[in-house]
Amino acid sequence: MQPLGTILVIRFSSIGDILLTTPVVRLLKWLFPDCQIDFVVKEEFAELLSANPNISTLYCFSKTDPARSLAKLKREIKTKHYDLIIDLHRNFRSYYLSWGSGAHRVIRYQKGVIRRFLLVKFKLGRQRPVVPIYQRYLNTLAPHQLPESLLRLEIFIPDEMAASVAERYSGFIDHAPGPIIGIAPGAKHATKRWTTEGFEAVIRFFIDQHNARVILFGSAADREFVDQIRLPAGAPIVNAVGQLSLLETSALMRHCHLMLTNDSGLMHLATALKKKVVAIFGSTTEQLGFFPYLTDYIVVQNHSLLCRPCSHIGRQRCPKGHFQCMKDIAAEQVIEAMLKLLSGPTQHPIQ
């Protein structure tokens, strides 16, 4: 690939996918240290990239007036005459921005829609080798590959924000007598959420048996589900659900020794922070490419169900009506996985 001066990356959403594009940004900067890398992202997710030193300009697409916002973005992009546009979203809006942009070259992520359709609808391809999503994004720049030493998801937290969050929660995180366990019980789609009873049992076990402190993470949209979890009165628990921005969530999550999540954006955020992760997968499977590969992790799932995956993003209800993919996962399985990761080589929780 010829030396490049200006590059535009397009990925509008969501938390996980945006974080999974950061190895591409890292590879571009490694290949072309002097290049200018700009990025188009939805406004609500811009914070994930706002402190990334490898990105020069962050273009924010507003969902409040999408037509006008896209038209304005298109005009601005056209004036830049980019050497390369990398479309990692590949939908109508990303095509709209790149068509007629004046870029010298446009390359697009291969979504593998047909393969995904066959997997979800007919369960074909479950034995194929798994290619993680971050690697599929990197394959857009094949044959170039990122050195193993640089291969990671990235989130950058400004020092002042890290210090502010540490001070705000200092009474909880300083001198903790046991492990600090982070739990993200939510997910956008119901079939990706483990049961409230399961989360209750895990929380009680680690508080009672391991003197743990627990931090609950999530967005305002997760509050209704998290409020259904019966938390022990007076227990050392911080409920930060809906209380923090994405970067503040990252800053607080850095203090956790382990994260328990569903298949969600916060699972990928924990991966970017190199936290040990136990992830519970229900309606989705590894073949879709979203496991937390780039950190120490264990995935707990029901391997015996032939109806998995029933969706590539999750559903609001089980299409079979039994929801065994989540209901059959016992708290003991999750606890065992968490204990296994906690007993591994210990590191300072902030890395």
- Main beta sheet, described? 6 strands, parallel
The computed structural class is alpha/beta
So how many helices? 14
CATH superfamily of the largest domain, by name, is: Glycogen Phosphorylase B
What's the SSE pattern? EHHEEHEHEHHHHEHEHEHEHEEHH
Unreliable runs, pLDDT <50, ≥5 residues? 346-351
Q: What is the CATH domain class of the largest domain?
A: Alpha Beta
Mean pLDDT: 95
Fraction in helix = 25-40%
Describe the structure.
The chain has 351 residues and is an alpha/beta fold. The chain has 14 helices and 11 strands. Helices cover 34% and strands 15% of the residues. The strands form 2 sheets. A 6-stranded parallel β-sheet has the order 8-7-6-9-10-11, sandwiched between helices. It has a 5-stranded parallel β-sheet with strand order 3-2-1-4-5, with helices on both faces. The chain starts with 5 loop residues before the first strand and ends in a 9-residue tail after the last helix. The model is unreliable at 346-351 (pLDDT under 50). It has helices at residues 15-20, 22-31, 66-80, 92-98, 113-122, 133-138, 159-168, 170-173, 196-210, 223-226, 246-253, 265-272, 324-327, 331-342, and strands spanning 6-10, 36-42, 57-61, 84-87, 106-108, 180-184, 213-216, 237-239, 258-262, 276-281, 297-301. It is globular, with a radius of gyration of 21 Å. It has 2 domains: 6-150, Glycogen Phosphorylase B (Rossmann fold), CATH 3.40.50.2000; 159-342, Rossmann fold (3-Layer(aba) Sandwich).
